[in-house]
Request: fold
Amino acid sequence: MKKIKLLLEYRGFPIWNYDDEEGFIGHYLPEEMEEDKKLEQELNEIQDIFDELYLDTKTEFDYIGFNSPTKELAFNKRVNMLVETIKSKYSHQFLIIDHLSI
Reply:
């Protein structure tokens, strides 16, 4: 069975693809999910929000976080809903390792 890991990493993509023989094979939407444009959009938006939590200049890289607890809570809720959507739609095709849910 194919395996995906759901994990946020700065300037990455929230889906990590794994192969039993090769191990990690890349950050991209698997072929089985490519037609799900709504899912792809949501993954990209969540990644964009996550990336904005960091200050990244030529001289400094730092986590700055959310500017309010309300925004952090809304983000966490959105992430959890995305994880549940992925699990309900794709758990029959992939072993899903969840490192996103909060």
DSSP finds two helices and six strands in the chain. Residues 69-90 form the longest helix (22 residues). The longest strand covers residues 2-6. Strands lie at 2-6, 15-19, 23-27, 54-56, 61-63, 94-98.
